[in-house]
Amino acid sequence: MKDAKLILKTHPTHQTVVQVGDRVAIGGSDIVVIGGPCAVESLAQMEQVAQVLAITAVAALRGGVYKPRTSPYSFQGMGVDGLRVLAAVRQQYGLPVVTEVMSVAQLEPVCAYADMLQIGSRNMQNFELLKALGQVPQPILLKRGLAATLEEFVMAAEYILAHGNPNVVLCERGIRSFDPYTRNVLDLGAVVALKQLTHLPVIVDPSHAAGKRELVPDLARAAIACGADGLIIECHPVPAESVSDARQALSLEDMVALTESLRAIAIAVGRSLPMPQAPAPLVLV
Amino acid sequence: MKDAKLILKTHPTHQTVVQVGDRVAIGGSDIVVIGGPCAVESLAQMEQVAQVLAITAVAALRGGVYKPRTSPYSFQGMGVDGLRVLAAVRQQYGLPVVTEVMSVAQLEPVCAYADMLQIGSRNMQNFELLKALGQVPQPILLKRGLAATLEEFVMAAEYILAHGNPNVVLCERGIRSFDPYTRNVLDLGAVVALKQLTHLPVIVDPSHAAGKRELVPDLARAAIACGADGLIIECHPVPAESVSDARQALSLEDMVALTESLRAIAIAVGRSLPMPQAPAPLVLV
Amino acid sequence: MKDAKLILKTHPTHQTVVQVGDRVAIGGSDIVVIGGPCAVESLAQMEQVAQVLAITAVAALRGGVYKPRTSPYSFQGMGVDGLRVLAAVRQQYGLPVVTEVMSVAQLEPVCAYADMLQIGSRNMQNFELLKALGQVPQPILLKRGLAATLEEFVMAAEYILAHGNPNVVLCERGIRSFDPYTRNVLDLGAVVALKQLTHLPVIVDPSHAAGKRELVPDLARAAIACGADGLIIECHPVPAESVSDARQALSLEDMVALTESLRAIAIAVGRSLPMPQAPAPLVLV
Amino acid sequence: MKDAKLILKTHPTHQTVVQVGDRVAIGGSDIVVIGGPCAVESLAQMEQVAQVLAITAVAALRGGVYKPRTSPYSFQGMGVDGLRVLAAVRQQYGLPVVTEVMSVAQLEPVCAYADMLQIGSRNMQNFELLKALGQVPQPILLKRGLAATLEEFVMAAEYILAHGNPNVVLCERGIRSFDPYTRNVLDLGAVVALKQLTHLPVIVDPSHAAGKRELVPDLARAAIACGADGLIIECHPVPAESVSDARQALSLEDMVALTESLRAIAIAVGRSLPMPQAPAPLVLV
After folding, report:
1. B159 and which of A195, A280, D72, D254 could share a cystine (Cβ 3.0–4.6 Å)?
2. Banded model confidence at residue A276, pLDDT cuts 50, 70, 90
């Protein structure tokens, strides 16, 4: 990490806390769980998700509207219509929303609606995008590239900080390897190392790492046990009908059960999980 | 796993418990921690280790006397003299001992002294050795190869079972990957998958995975959180003076602290850690 | 490659020939060698390079003006000034120029000057950029991502074709692996497979694969022997003084010798290498 | 390679030539092609192979009688009966034979029949076997492990030399990687590096690397173009009926055509291919 300046931990308790919306803080004592579908598919779908998650310990909602897809013929996301869906459920259920941005041109619409901007693995070294992220007010969720070294990963964060935005959360989401049994290999050693090297919060995405829903809960618990500040997990009202990554999405019931199971682990490592929330009051605008 | 027969879990609670010596059982509710140095270096060294670990929750002692070394000019292990050291400390401190065997020719001396035989990563597909292990009375600790798929790993265990020995414990110890920051990548997704696929106990070696002692405790806790049945961890009275793998060995104090920290995690996932033992009575022979 | 439509070879002799400038065609019987420095550093540097290469079998000039760098504090390229340097040497020496583009915003200036646009490994799945490349008149040199499967690679090309630009050349440049001895692993099996799967031309970058200049010539010859349509190789007037990737750049003398050594290999596999060119007449504008 | 002593090239023309039987030398100007099936299946099968190959430029015959198989339920090889088959065809057709040995116990029968002993990838770091190989009179064909670094590979050879046998040929056979399209990734950069680092001959196995027969000929030509001293290639009278690795075996016709195509490449890099042999006179014993 010889060129790193801004992301380095300068003393053992040096820790950035990144604020997402009004209520959520990543990097503090609370474990932050972000849940939601791979892709925003409709208002009805997102309402089903938000209705369930809003009264649990899940702190924020995820859902992609601009989707990086291997094939140009696959569903590319709902775009601005999807952003409006996210804004609607945020207002109704009081959960901040996280969504992916794939290009500088998408920054304007996404910044108008989202509480946190996700940069996907395939764009971790899209340096022109990283530079532009330095200028936005929202915090950034930066996912590790599929074959990025830790040095490349933290230096990508360094780009964002160096261009003006100090609010970056790192996300380990599995690296590419040789075994077809799992989609990727979740590298929790990287999480431990990142927590020691940098003051930025570090969360884990066990869904993309595993690629199989039955592996997700145990990996989620492991992530919290090794010091991660939070999780981002895919869930869907009807996983089998998910338009993308159906094999890895949890049902909403399993998502709730998993989240609650984290509490004991969090306590075991000196952290906490927020208590399930009372339903948010409806806000009329 | 199309060819697997004997290692497959046939129903959700199908679980083999492997007995090591009289007192230790791997695969039951107790988390089993195996600790000790990379290599047996002297009786004094092993006594220092055993004296400390015998009154903790550590259940068994490790120490290599036949060492697989990349270079023919590196220390190759104490051989039979080392086995005698292991036998002496076992008798004095009441801890069963685990040690590596690298060839069919070493089986006779090792079986005369050790409670459990470890097969290292480099021999995971040494098929002639696997066949011979089917005929020994001791349980086998089979480490995953550096680039072994899960199918190859469980089929290596299948060899041992098919040749007559049902007592095999699988050990995930990190796979080879691209990032020089850690020595290997600990693949806890494999642990979760193996616990679902097979009835054999699964333990984790975070020391060889990380290659850096400061990463070991968090990875050890993650391993227990995701369902591992135990851990094998390297520690040394003076880590910096270890003849091999010095960079990853814990001090004995750190080993004891780490072991005790596992209790809360074990409980959080419905397991237990044995209570620290009273000093074993000296047995005169 | 289940989703691929436009990039698939429909019959054994189906082969696209991509025109670069007036004189150069990639995918025909001639092997096309592209040479030049990692980064454009000055007019003097590029003139030194072009002067030597223009009278060899080297067909085109490379040089980066927008540089994707791991660290935000490393030299980021000369930008538009560098494009003017490329245009000047192209006019003077008659060699078409290839240069990297990292974002949609860079398309306008680069398209005003360059004969071919290179997309680097880190942007292979920058899908918004790929879509925009469908609309430019220049041919595209698409480099394989560091950990891209062949399916992901050809589907990235499919994006460009599906959005309107049929002139794509694929470039294998090494994939990430575990051995620190070489920078990456040159995957010539991928070259053979791509030549069988797709009608697009395929070239090889042995410089970034090897990361060490002493490995480059032998790998370049191997690439031609296995059916590659060309090569892109880094060279520099004074390799040790290169501002980036100094360790892998050939001297100009070695570059000329390597290029000439390809002739016998090309003939051995039924291809040809252009004869060294007479110095291009100066064109007054 | 800090610990290497015996395998290092001490001056640029330092090159060991390994004699296999009376007629074949690996590491000289002649390219040595070894051909034959994955497994010896019957005398009839081996006679079909030998009859065709004996009158080509193929220099030696391969065929496994002890087979390392992932599953204990797969065909494990003909054993000593297979060795007798190899001896019979050797005598009849005058081709030296290469076969794999998996354990110290197999050394005695194999040394009684074979001209060269192959150590497979899974046993590259079977150190007790390597030590024993130092004491046999036959030359050793040492295959690179599936995830072995170059340092580990040459140090495995160093074990054999250090224990008394100077006749070791290194064989690159593909390394494990992430793309399921090919079985492994052929690492020709390793071949180039090994030729520069060590005085031992280096050959290439494109069959196991590619795993698909249609990729083998181009990779074989690439291997010779980058400086390999020879090839070991799988072929079978009826590839689809091969008991193992059927997908990668060439037909005998394709094997002959491939071998002949190497001549022009060999000449292009200053090497030679033996002229097809006249049928060997029958030797009556």
Report:
1. D72
2. confident
CA atoms of D228 and D191, how far apart (whole Å):
7
State whether ipTM is beyond 0.85. yes
Domains of chain A, first to last: 18-268 (3.20.20.70)
If one counts every other C-beta atom within 10 angstroms of the C-beta of residue A261, the result is: 17
Contacts of A193 in chain B (CB under 8 A): 181-182, 215
Tokens (6 digits) for A60: 């924020």
Residue among C70, C147, C151 minimizing CB distance to A147: C147
Q: Which residues of C114-130 are buried (b: 16+ CB within 10 A; e: fewer)?
A: bbbbbbbbbbbbbbbbb
pLDDT of the residue at D284: 52
CB contact under 8 A, B177 and C178: yes
**Whether A218 and B209 lie within 8 Å, measured CB to CB:** no
Q: For residues C201-205, give the mean pLDDT.
A: 98
Instruction: Please answer yes or no on whether A147 and B223 come within 8 Å at the CB atom.
Output: no
B150 to chain D: nearest residue by CA?
D70
Residue D76 token pair:
């494990």
- For C162-176, the pLDDT digits (tens) are 999 999 999 999 999
| Burial classification of residue B134, based on how many CB atoms lie within 10 Å of its CB (0-12 exposed, 13-18 middle, 19 or more buried) | middle
User: Nearest C-alpha of chain A: how many angstroms from B83?
Assistant: 33
Position B184 scores a pLDDT of: 97
Instruction: Test D188 with C222 for CB contact under 8 angstroms.
Output: yes
To test the contact with chain D by mutation, choose from B100, B103, B108 the residue with the greatest count of D C-beta atoms within 10 A, namely B103
Share of chain A above pLDDT 90, in %: 94
Question: Which helix (H) or strand (E) is D259 found in, with range?
Answer: helix D252-268
Determine the residue of chain A that is closest to C149 in CA distance. A176
| A143-182 pLDDT tens trace | 999 999 999 999 999 999 999 999 999 999 999 999 999 9
Mean pLDDT of chain D: 96
